[in-house]
């Protein structure tokens, strides 16, 4: 179970471990360039300027809807500025994407459809595996440890992305952000993955790069390993409650 008090050095996969759950973006694969391409296509439909890939990385992790809301926060800020006739927003909150139009806003609905279509058209052509990802999956698979993918990315993209990255054969269970009624940081996806793998949460690991992964693991009483190279390097993963921190998946081999 994740705690904030102790963070021992990684000692390797425990013999009792029977299941490992992986996040996708920022953990196993880097798909930020494709995401940024789709985000900027969507922003262009609203006559908004393109943003850097580094900015998009900060917005990723809570699903496509939140990504779209963050990427279109300029519309909300302009609305506020016009209403109050002054600039009232905080630049730090702006960078983190904390100014959000509601999901039922017509602009968000339009933006979401534009983003989804543009992202589908990228066909994952710029996706790359992080160092050690393939080797770790192979090792766990050979050890007969059951594997699940638990991501907040929409389910419709997962089969093609996993195939593109050549890691589609390893996972017994694949859950997207819209597969269930709740996504991470709610524990439901992790607990559902354990149920489908037929493993106990206490004998499982969650490996991810973000606040959502750690909080979900803590809520599900699953040991969590946080990778420091992912999309959320600005977050204090240790303070959030990760049991272990690793700088590369090669450390888990």
What's the structural blueprint in terms of helices and strands?
Layout: E1 19-22, E2 29-30, H1 32-45, H2 53-59, H3 64-71, H4 73-84, H5 91-96, H6 106-122, E3 128-129, H7 133-142, E4 146-150, H8 158-164, E5 173-175, H9 188-197, E6 204-208, H10 211-220, E7 223-227, H11 237-240, E8 244-246
Parallel strand pairs: 1-4, 1-6, 4-5, 6-7, 7-8
Antiparallel strand pairs: 2-3
Helix pairs in contact: 1-2, 1-6, 3-6
GO molecular function: metal ion binding; phosphoglycolate phosphatase activity
Protein name: phosphoglycolate phosphatase
Family: Belongs to the HAD-like hydrolase superfamily. CbbY/CbbZ/Gph/YieH family.
Your description of this structure?
With 253 residues, the protein is α/β, with parallel strands linked by helices. It has helices spanning 32-45, 53-59, 64-71, 73-84, 91-96, 106-122, 133-142, 158-164, 188-197, 211-220, 237-240, and strands at residues 19-22, 29-30, 128-129, 146-150, 173-175, 204-208, 223-227, 244-246. The chain has a 6-stranded parallel beta sheet with strand order 5-4-1-6-7-8, sandwiched between helices. Strands 2-3 form a two-stranded antiparallel sheet. It is globular and about 55 Å long. Its EC number is 3.1.3.18. Pfam families: HAD_2 (PF13419). Pathway: Organic acid metabolism; glycolate biosynthesis; glycolate from 2-phosphoglycolate: step 1/1. InterPro entries: HAD-like_hydrolase_sf, HAD-like_sf, HAD-SF_hydro_IA, HAD_2, HAD_sf, PGP-like_dom2, PGPase_prok.
């Amino acid at each position: 179970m994740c705690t904030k008090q102790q963070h021992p050095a990684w000692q390797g996969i425990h013999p009792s471990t029977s299941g490992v759950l992986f996040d996708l973006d920022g953990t196993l694969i880097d798909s930020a360039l494709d995401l940024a391409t789709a985000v900027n296509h969507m922003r262009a439909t609203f006559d908004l300027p393109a943003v850097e890939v580094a900015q998009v990385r900060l917005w990723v992790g809570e699903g496509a809807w939140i990504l779209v809301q963050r990427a279109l926060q300029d519309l909300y800020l302009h609305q506020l500025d016009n209403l109050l006739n002054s600039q009232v927003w905080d630049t730090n909150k702006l960078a983190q994407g904390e100014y959000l139009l509601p999901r039922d806003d017509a602009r968000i609905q339009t933006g979401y459809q534009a983003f989804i279509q543009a992202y589908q058209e990228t066909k994952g052509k710029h996706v790359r595996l992080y160092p050690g990802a393939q080797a770790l999956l192979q090792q766990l698979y050979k050890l007969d440890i059951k594997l699940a993918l638990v991501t907040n990315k929409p389910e419709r993209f997962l089969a093609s992305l996993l195939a593109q990255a050549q890691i589609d054969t390893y996972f017994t269970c694949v859950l997207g952000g819209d597969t269930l009624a709740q996504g991470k940081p709610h524990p439901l996806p992790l607990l559902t993955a354990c149920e489908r793998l037929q493993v106990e949460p206490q004998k499982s690991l969650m490996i991810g790069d973000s606040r959502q992964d750690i909080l979900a693991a803590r809520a599900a009483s699953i040991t969590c390993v946080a990778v420091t190279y992912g999309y959320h390097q600005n977050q204090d993963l240790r303070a959030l409650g990760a049991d272990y921190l690793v700088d590369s998946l090669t450390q888990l081999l």
